[in-house]
Amino acid sequence: MKDIITSRLRFSATLIVLALFLAGFIQACSSQKKDLPPDDINTDTIPVKYVDTDVMFWLTKADSTVRFRRQNVALNFSEVPPSGNTITVDPGTTFQTIDGFGFALTGGSAYLINRLPAAEKNSLLQELFSADSTFIGTSYLRISIGSSDLDAYVFSYSNIDPNSSDPELSSFDITPDTYNLIPVLKAILAINPEIKIMGSPWSAPVWMKTNKNSVGGSLKPEYYGVYAKYFVKYLQAMKSYGITLDAITVQNEPEYGGNNPSMLMTAVEQADFIKNHLGPAFQEAGLTTKIVIFDHNCDHPGYPITVLNDPDARKYIDGSAFHLYAGDISALSQVHNAYPDKNLYFTEQWVGGSPTIQFGSNLKWHVKNLIIGAPQNWSRVVLEWNLASDPSYKPHTPGGCSKCLGAVTIGSSVSRNVAYYIIAHASKFVRPGSVRIGSTVVAGLPNVAYKAPDGRKILIVLNEGVTSQTFNIRFGERHVKTSLEAGSVATYVW
Question: Does this model's pTM top 0.85?
Fold first, then answer.
């Protein structure tokens, strides 16, 4: 009996010691977390104790072994003159103000997000849209007016028989958006009330179109006034749900009629629609939502210039939107040079899904052309395409995009894909109201710099070469030396 009692006492003592050890460990971890810098995004179980540094440095490697992770290195400014390549950041040279970076919240994205368990949905939305210490701070969204091709089915807000007409729009009904899109938008706005939203139609209701079909066709001239009223009713309906759109584009990809849905609209037709119908309708309704034109590829900058050449249309137009499935990103500067008082927006670029998705090549192309190239050519906004898809790139309409990889994939779990990290390198730090500032062009190291509203400077650099590069960042009379592996991208903040 004595041996049994002794054994039990020893066991109890061991449990007490173990409990004290665990309590001390938990307290130490909690204390260490307090030492994290206020803008750390590291999600390791045990927080990292970062070294003191003048310049904080976030990295994504081309081989995807490091994905938007803060590096625990000291990058301290020195007044010693540097040698080698130098990127000089000049806050005295200023360009456009930034509205935001983000994604398209397609109907399919909203559906997938909305069906997540409540705690998981809230966690994902916080991660995407909160601008606090642990999340990426998406600050701009694009949604479809009616369905896009990344909805499960085609719909408009006036779904009547194609051979009928409804000039009074008594059939107007926004109910399809109330199932998923509006609830998700309201949850996002609760996290970030300042987020800006752009709406884009893929097609007018089929009964307004020349071919009575969701694919292709054009808007009949006799329905221009009715369609302008359709936009007004849409914006008013969204506002009744507490959702105010910052901007609309007149037509998504007006030069391509092969998507489902889609609609063709020439530059002359777009100018006519705006000056004689849409602009006056917005003015009469007291709407301040911006009207943005074109919303198509960089190979035809003449389209927005043609619309802007019409002074009666131009007075209603805020700016032009672009995609880059064809052409060169420098087309934005052509339009800026023609009309420097009009804004520019980069509104869509997909990442194609396949069994051999190339993280590194997509990272390099998108960062060079969109995150760096579009702002360097005056864009106020940079948006990647679909925010979320399932593992089979669904949902999509019959004939819609069947290989559009979401920034996140939502299946049995949530995984993050290359577009997530591409946007994160800008969205977390280049907050709305940031101003692009001067930065020198260095061969093999495309870059763009900003001054944030809080005064911090941000420099995004890509090593587009095939070998590692060491270079200097110069700010005033101070310099700091750093390096990037081939194909990697870095965001530097000080």
Answer: yes
Residues 463 and 327 in one domain: no
Q: Specify whether 190 is located in the same domain as 275.
A: yes
Over the chain, what HEC string results? CHHHHHHHHHHHHHHHHHHHHHHHHHHHHHHHHCCCCCCCCCCCCCCCCCCCCCCEEEEECCCCCCCCEECCCCCCCECCCCCCCEEEEEEEEEEEECCEEEEECCHHHHHHHHCCCHHHHHHHHHHHHCCCCCCCCCCEEEEEECCCCCCCCCCCCCCCCCCCCCCCCCCCCCHHHHCCHHHHHHHHHHHCCCCEEEEEECCCCHHHECCCCCCCCEECHHHHHHHHHHHHHHHHHHHHCCCCCCEEECCCCCCCCCCCCCCECCHHHHHHHHHHHHHHHHHHHCCCCEEEEEEEEECCCHHHHHHHCCHHHHCCEEEEEEEEEEECCCHHHHHHHHCCCCEEEEEECCCECCCCCCHHHHHHHHHHHHHHHHHHCCEEEEEEEECEECCCCCCCCCCCCCCECCCEEECCCEEECHHHHHHHHHHCCCCCCCEEEEECCCCCCCEEEEECCCCCEEEEEECCCCCCEEEEEEECCEEEEEEECCCCEEEEEC
Looking at the structure, do residues 177 and 305 belong to the same domain, yes or no? yes
Same domain, 79 and 182: no
Do 69 and 119 fall within a single domain? no
Point out the residues that are catalytic: 253, 348
* Residue 430 pLDDT exceeds 80: yes
Domain that holds residue 19: 1-34
**322-332 residue pLDDT tens:** 999 999 999 99
**Whether residue 292 sits in one domain with residue 273:** yes
Burial class (CB in 10 A: 0-12, 13-18, 19+), 410: buried
What is the average pLDDT across 328-355?
96
- Whether 45 maps to a domain, the answer reads no
Number of domain units in the chain: 3
- Are 329 and 388 within one domain? yes
Enter the tokens of residue 100: 């935001």
Q: What CATH number has the domain bearing residue 266?
A: 3.20.20.80
Contact 226, 220 (CB under 8 A): no
424 and 443 co-located in one domain? no
| 179-229 confidence digits (pLDDT tens) | 999 999 999 999 999 999 999 999 999 999 999 999 999 999 999 999 999
Contact between 152 and 111 under an 8 Å Cβ cutoff? The reply is yes
What are the tens digits of pLDDT across the range 20-42?
Answer: 344 443 343 333 333 333 334 54
